[in-house]
Amino acid sequence: MAVYGIDLGTTYSCVARIDDVGRPTVLRNMEGADTTPSVVYFESADSVVVGQSAKDATVLDPVHVVQLIKRDMGDVVPREFHGRAYTPEEISARILRKLVEDAKATGGKEARDVVISVPAYFGLAERDATRKAGEIAGLRVLDVVAEPVAAALDYGALDGDEERGDRAILVYDLGGGTFDTTVLTLRGRELTVLCTDGAKELGGSDFDDRIVVHLVERFRERFPDVDDPLSDPQSETQLRKDAEEAKKALSFRERYTVRVMHQGRVEAVELTREKVRELTGDLLDRTVDITRRTVELAAEHGVSHFDEVLLVGGATKMPAVAEALRTQFGFEPKLHNPDLAVARGAAIYALDRAAYIVSSGELPADQLPVVPETGLTHRPYQISTVASRGYGIQLVERDTDRRYVFHLVHANDPLPVSVTDEFYTTHAGQRSVRIRVMEQAGVEESEELAHNACVAEGHLAIPPGKPENWPIQCVYTLDSSGLLGVVAVEKESGEKLELTVQIGGMTPDAVATARDALSRQRFS
Ligand code: ADP
Ligand code: MG
């Protein structure tokens, strides 16, 4: 059995393993492609289609097709198909299943031990859901790794001798549906995610949309009396597909012609790279603005020079991306298989983890993952990261009774972190306080209740006869893997409330049942 790295992407996924000479290799799917659309088509109760064919099925049977499921990871939002409800974990598990089944068929080795990549901004619930997706797919998830870390591993940005001193790396990741920028620093073998920022709804598919709109405009100019092609789902799906093809082709050529067909009419629209750049300029500008924000945040953390700028995500193949970074920041970005780098890096990291597990005796001998004979010595990276979200406590304003959230840990605080603060009872004779641990839900920290999710709660007893403003001490600790623990103490009695975050995800039993259900479905 081999150790695999999997990039479970919002729009495309990819799987890689370490070959016999110790290099990461991407395994093609059965259709012969390096990446597989993260699309699942529930064809019937016992048959599921994943990948390009599922994407194609959108034309004929859109209600049974799921796209962009990664955006729902960590939420409890099951969807029903053919009389059965599927959680986001279960839907993602079907993508993973397709990837490893195909990898086995094309690469020849059964997958059991895997590392799955996750965006750096993923919180606890999303990370947990990703692990569970792997378990449902019948895999043993050795670990999850942040996507920019995986990409940096693949780019070799972390290699080399430690005498070179501290290094800083900026990762610009423009995928199909999301954009992230992350700054990493490397000191010896100590890798730190310094800060991360991005937009969850900005990616290559927005570029496709602009092309679609342009194609439709040209078609309607030519045939003013014909219906809008966008009013017909079939024509629309075809247009989106053609627009994406055109966009991809224009990364390598200057012009490309799309034939727009609708109601028996055809208009050939010629697109140039320049035209697409003009149609999508503001989208690229948004990524530049966010990158600038990240660069400024890094400067506040003392990093003002980047040894490497890495391009990740399929959409960075558009030459306009590197060009914008060159002209706006003077960067010399590296572009090398940007849509495969995360899976390849996850495979490198998987090898690292497997070697660690082997050497630490964490598992019984008969369950050890097989580490290829690479002849390499193993020196694991110490990966430390920042909090991906803010964490706080729900408080009540005494005079107005307004409820709000006070954050003790903030996004981008270096991990591990431990913060102690004191809070006070609202009235005399109060016998208990309710401790509600809140996780920031949106991109920005906000004290509004609605912008936070309650991730754990409990009651702490207070001795009788205490005046108002009686103090309660709270300690928030976030360890280096991002696990949150909260301890509230009433000092006089020594009464203590210890909370660990209950992640809203699936229970081990539910995971086992889901794994069973998956194994009974046919895949293609
Ligand atoms: P994800 O966002 O799921 O991680 P990828 O990193 O593979 O996925 O990025 C997918 C996006 O990259 C899609 O919008 C796709 O159209 C785009 N893409 C892939 N190849 C090219 C290319 N040659 N030129 C421009 N865009 C591309
Ligand atoms: Mg990606």
Helices and strands in order:
Blueprint: E1 2-7, E2 12-18, E3 24-26, E4 36-37, E5 40-44, E6 47-50, H1 52-57, E7 65-66, E8 79-81, E9 84-86, H2 88-107, E10 111-118, H3 124-136, E11 140-146, H4 147-154, E12 167-174, E13 179-187, E14 190-199, H5 204-222, H6 233-249, E15 255-262, E16 265-272, H7 273-300, E17 308-312, H8 319-329, E18 334-335, H9 341-360, E19 382-384, E20 391-396, E21 403-409, E22 417-424, E23 432-440, E24 452-461, E25 471-478, E26 484-490, E27 495-500, H10 508-519, E28 522-523
Parallel strand pairs: 1-10, 6-28, 10-11, 12-17, 14-19, 17-18
Antiparallel strand pairs: 1-2, 2-3, 2-4, 5-6, 5-7, 8-9, 12-13, 13-14, 15-16, 20-21, 20-23, 22-25, 23-24, 25-26, 26-27
Helix pairs in contact: 2-3, 3-10, 4-9, 5-6, 5-7, 7-8
Bound molecules: adenosine-5'-diphosphate and magnesium ion.
Compact description:
The chain is globular and about 85 Å long.
Provide the descriptors you would attach to this structure in a database record.
524 residues; alpha+beta; Nucleotidyltransferase, domain 5; Substrate Binding Domain Of DNAk, Chain A, domain 1; 3 domains; six-stranded mixed sheet; binds adenosine-5'-diphosphate; binds magnesium ion; stress response; Molecular chaperone DnaK; phosphoprotein
